[in-house]
Backbone:
């Protein structure tokens, strides 16, 4: 099905429109109700300890500020490698996520121990020519990034120019070489859950390795209902094609309680196969600190002061 469709949409925006608009519509009340229901699930203490360690291992520890410096990136990498220097049993995070010009510094700091994710394609707006976006991507990969987080052209998507978005993802995927591609939708700008579902399928069809909610620069960013829609999309895609695609909610996930809610949802919707950093990530900067504080409390029976964690 997908190979035939890809051959069709490569020359026809109309065929891609028919496919995307032929997807089942999202029941807004149902999606929000199920997300709310799943968020009330509780887990036992031993499972909570495992969930916190799993969540730590899924974090893309992120700094995406104009005032980022080499020293800040190196400090972030040190924390990513050893999140809690007082406890060597603490797992390291999945990746550090930086701007492309900082990818070489991050790669030098983490070596082969962690992934280096770089945002590209005129992040966060996506407003640049394809030539600029391709150069941005190639530079990041040449600097040592083995994961690229690209943003789609939301203007083109909302205008119904699906083929333009598809072709751009295909081109960026090719420019990635062996690096994995995460496609960011900026769901807060897509307006409807139906658009979120259509964007999910469009990205998967074009070759995305991960689909990602947000840049973290627009509110609302990641939400449980939106992430539910992405998870349902990758689950159904796997059933249709046998291919597993990852999901990355990003922006606004700050507490251990939030992270565990997302992990419960992943397990309920996609199953244990997706409970791995290879298929689920948290895009976050402050989340790791709360996970470390909760982990330390469970280990020692008391909370440490605010100086126990670094302020990034």
Residues:
């Amino acid at each position: 099905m997908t190979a035939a469709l890809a051959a069709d949409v490569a020359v026809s925006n109309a065929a891609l429109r028919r496919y995307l608009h032929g997807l089942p519509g999202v029941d807004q009340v149902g999606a929000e109700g199920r997300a709310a229901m799943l968020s009330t699930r509780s887990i036992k203490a031993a499972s909570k300890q495992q969930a916190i360690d799993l969540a730590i291992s899924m974090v893309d520890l992120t700094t995406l500020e104009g005032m980022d410096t080499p020293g800040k990136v190196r400090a972030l990498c040190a924390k990513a490698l050893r999140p809690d220097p007082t406890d060597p049993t603490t797992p390291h995070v999945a990746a550090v996520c930086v701007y492309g010009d900082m990818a070489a510094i991050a790669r030098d700091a983490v070596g082969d121990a962690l992934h280096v994710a770089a945002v590209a394609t005129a992040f966060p707006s996506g407003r640049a020519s394809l030539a600029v976006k391709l150069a941005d991507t190639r530079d990041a990969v040449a600097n040592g990034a083995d994961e690229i987080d690209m943003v789609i052209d939301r203007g083109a998507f909302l205008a119904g120019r699906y083929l333009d978005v598809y072709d751009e993802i295909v081109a960026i995927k090719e420019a990635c070489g062996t690096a994995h591609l995460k496609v960011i939708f900026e769901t807060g700008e897509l307006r409807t859950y139906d658009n979120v579902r259509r964007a999910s399928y469009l990205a998967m069809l074009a070759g995305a390795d991960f689909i990602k909610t947000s840049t973290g620069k627009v509110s609302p960013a990641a939400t449980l209902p939106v992430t539910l829609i992405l998870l349902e999309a990758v689950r159904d895609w796997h059933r249709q094609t046998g291919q597993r695609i990852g999901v990355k909610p990003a922006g606004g996930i700050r507490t251990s309680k939030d992270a565990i809610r997302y992990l419960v949802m992943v397990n309920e919707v996609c199953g244990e196969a997706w409970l791995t950093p290879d298929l689920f990530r948290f895009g976050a900067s402050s989340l790791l600190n709360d996970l470390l504080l909760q982990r330390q409390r469970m280990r020692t029976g008391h909370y440490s002061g605010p100086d126990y964690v670094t302020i990034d």
